[in-house]
Amino acid sequence: MNFNDSLNKFLRYLKLEKQYSVHTSASYKRDINQFKIFLEDEYEYLLSDIGKVSPATIREYLSTMIISGISRRSVARKLSALRSFFKYHFRQGYISKTPTDNINAPKLNKPLPKFLTIKEIDKLVNAINKETLIGKRIYALIEVLYSTGMRVSEVVNLKHEEIQWREGIVRVIGKGKKERLVMLGNAALSMLKNYIGDADYDRKSSVQYIFRNKFGRKLNVKTVQTDISTLAKRAGINRDVTPHILRHSFATHMLDAGADLRSVQELLGHASLSTTQIYTHVTPERLKAAYDKAHPRK
């Protein structure tokens, strides 16, 4: 099977069977196309039959990327995409072996996740103009992101029917269409009600999504990212602040306050506990509390 046909089959599988988002499928396509460019340059004959790709070809490709200065994390991600690609074709019987078997990804120095302190979150919300509809929307967005730990893509897709207002519970449809329940704190509930209760909020719109742009259509992720980044600069927070950092902050503060790892895993929607464990880094506040509690000459 030639490369283009095999890629189209794989992308169709991601969309229809795995039910991956457009964004995730596009990432796979980008990474696999980069391998295609390598084959075009070095081994053009392999493009007509992916079954002839060997482990040696994969290793040479990985080495080429590392030598060219691509980060080890990016190389590992690209290898993961190729593994999925070849495993799919092996399972379907299109190829007789997978060339990515027994090839290890480059070792990574995992950075600690970035997060905001509670004081910084207070600075963020204090910088909001709370009198306008957009200000109320930003306030509600920040409180929902921080209160629930939801991904920004999940928040912009949030619908009225998915919130149990009295109980403060949200039904989230996450990655791979997996469903989970997350909790809305009182601050988030209050700011949501304040936002949708504004006189300028169009309650007659046929749009089901809670968060909307000025035209009454569903808010997009890029707008949320821009709004939060701009607000952080206004608040005097001198580093990049993204919606995902609020998710990191949720997990870090929950674990700091004594929440168990399994519960945080469920709330974040992580398939693996090891993914959640990156948030068990020790914050200065937790170190000081442990020291004050245990040291005889504190």
Can you describe this structure?
The protein is mostly helical. It folds into two domains: 3-91, DNA polymerase, domain 1, CATH 1.10.150; 118-290, hpI Integrase, Chain A, CATH 1.10.443. The protein contains 13 helices and three strands. It has helices at residues 3-16, 22-42, 55-67, 72-91, 118-126, 133-148, 152-156, 186-196, 221-234, 243-256, 261-268, 273-276, 284-294; strands at 163-164, 169-173, 179-183. Strands 1-2-3 form a three-stranded antiparallel beta sheet. The longest helix is centred in the first third of the chain and has 21 residues, at 22-42. The chain is globular and about 65 Å long. It starts with a helix and ends with a helix. The model has no long low-confidence stretch (mean pLDDT 89).
SSE topology:
Layout (H helix, E strand, L loop, with lengths): L2 H14 L5 H21 L12 H13 L4 H20 L26 H9 L6 H16 L3 H5 L6 E2 L4 E5 L5 E5 L2 H11 L24 H14 L8 H14 L4 H8 L4 H4 L7 H11 L4
Antiparallel strand pairs: 1-2, 2-3
Helix pairs in contact: 1-2, 2-4, 6-8, 6-10
